[in-house]
Each structure stands twice: as C-alpha cells, then as structure tokens.
Amino acid sequence: MSSPLPDDAAEERLIPVLGQQIRVRVRWGEGVPLVLCNGIGAAFEVLDPLVAALAPRTTVVRFDVPGVGGSPDSLLPYGFPYLAAVLGELLRKLGTPGRVDVLGLSWGGALAQQFAFQHPRRCRALILVSTGTGVLMIPGRPRILLKMLTPQRFLDHEYAARVAGDLYGGTARTDSGRVAQLFDRQLMAGSRIGYLHQLLAGSVWTSLFALPLIRQPTLILAGTDDPIVPIANARIMSRLLPHATVRLHAGGHVDLITNARELAPVIEAFRAEPNSAGGRAPP
C-alpha cells in the first residue's frame, strides 16, 4: 500500500467562478483526480470518512455549491447545467485540465450526470451513489421526503439523530448518533436560501432522456435499505446508461459515508478497471 500524503498536500481556498465564490478542498496526489459532488445541504467536511477510506495517494477534489458550507449564496436561483459549467471552470482554475472521475451522492448525483453529459471529454468515468434521474424518478415514501424539504437536520443535530434511522436507513438505523457527528464536522452550516436554491434545481431537472447519451463507464451504487431513493431507480438508470454496472449493498442512503471502509474499495476497484483507467475519451 502506498504511503499517506503529507499534511501540506491538502489545499483549501475560495475561488471565483462564473459569478460565484466556491469553497474547494483538494488533496493532491497521483493519477486521475476523483471529484466528489455532495448531497443536498451538506458541506464537504461530511465526506471526510469517505476521503479517509480512499487510497491514500488519490487526488480528491471536493467543493461546496453556492449557499452551502463555506460558499456564499448565489444571488439568483440556478440549475444543474449552470452548476456543471461552474464545476468545469473550477477544475480548470485548479489546474486539472485533463480527465477526471466524478462521483455524485444523492443530489450530487444529478450534478455528476449533468457534468458527464456536458463535458464528455473531461469526464472519464461516472460513479452514481444513492441517486436517480431527478424529478422523473420513483420517489421515496412521502413522509420521508417531507423531512427533506427543510435543512433542519443540518442545523439541529439532536433532531438529525432522531430522524436519521427513518430518513437514511442502513447503518443509520442502528447508529443514528453517527449521522449527527457527521453533521458536526461542518465548519459552517448552509443558508436556508442556499437550500431552497438546491431544492429548486432538483425540482425542474431530469436526466431520463439524456442517459442514453452518456457514454462513460458508470458505476451505480445503491442500498437496498434506502428510504429516499428506492433501488428501482438504480435498475432504471442501468437500463438507460450504455455502460453501467450496478452494485447493490445492504445499507442505506448515506452508507457511502457511514460505512465508507466497506464501500470505498468498491469505488477504487471500479476506477482501476481497464474501461475506466485506460479507455479512450468518449467521442
């Protein structure tokens, strides 16, 4: 196993991109960078357990979308095509003009799909976790989705612990306090207007008709105990994406983070496959 990177290999800063100020953190390493697109309302610190479980010399890029964590609010609502353009320009300013692998968790899965569609030559491989096709997807149970309409769980961590099991399923059912601890990692909670902008972006977007045009090798990682995104969505995406592989696990919506030691090797194995690591750029 390769040795860990020194502490000064990580860089965090605020970068102006297309009218936004985007907080970004990069763990510089080797190989094709892995870009992480987070779930709704969550700052990038929540992804710390996943980053720690990945190969120690993997270059990892993570960022806060406008109105989340350390990124100031956007003056106007935005959509995923705009955010994909922001991400592309952010990567250019970071000095990563080559290809990247993009992982999207939940809401971030929509951004990952949009980026792969808009930037086919920049995106080498796609990893979609606990996500679906947007507004045209099979939804979770209504009482669960109602809890997603406000950012209360990010602002009140006792409330987060109370609802974590029902909301996220998987390991959160037996260790709900772990979810509250993850949210405690956030140095700055996002704003309510930022959360509203994220909700609005998701309410008018679907990838259902674009998925057949996404040619990148794609790993779909879905939990069989996910109350928010039923596994039927993974099966739908796998039929529409030309080069998709589905991996089911017994966990829930956020097990990528709460059970990172088990799921990170699945991601690393996929990225190491010839069709991901050595394949040509999509036409």
In short:
The chain is an alpha/beta fold and 283 residues long. It has helices at 48-53, 80-94, 107-118, 142-146, 152-155, 157-168, 176-184, 192-203, 232-240, 255-258, 260-272, 274-277, and strands at residues 10-17, 20-27, 30-37, 58-63, 100-105, 123-129, 218-223, 244-249. The radius of gyration is 17 Å and the shape is globular.
Radius of gyration: 17 Å
Helix segment count?
12
* Oligomer type: single chain
Strands ordered across the widest β-sheet: 1-2-4-3-5-6-7-8
Please state the average pLDDT score. 92
Instruction: Give me the secondary-structure category.
Output: alpha/beta
Q: How helix-rich are the residues, as a percent range?
A: 25-40%
Low-confidence stretches: 277-283
Number of DSSP E strands: 8
SSE series: EEEHEHEHEHHHHHEHEHHH
Largest sheet, in brief, is:
8 strands, mixed
Percent of residues in β-strands: 15-25%
Form type: globular
N/C terminus separation: 35 Å
Structural overview:
The chain is of the alpha/beta class. The protein has helices spanning 48-53, 80-94, 107-118, 142-146, 152-155, 157-168, 176-184, 192-203, 232-240, 255-258, 260-272, 274-277; strands at residues 10-17, 20-27, 30-37, 58-63, 100-105, 123-129, 218-223, 244-249. It has an eight-stranded mixed beta sheet with strand order 1-2-4-3-5-6-7-8, with helices on both faces. Helix 2 (80-94) crosses helix 3. The longest helix is centred in the first third of the chain and has 15 residues, at 80-94. The protein is globular, with a radius of gyration of 17 Å.
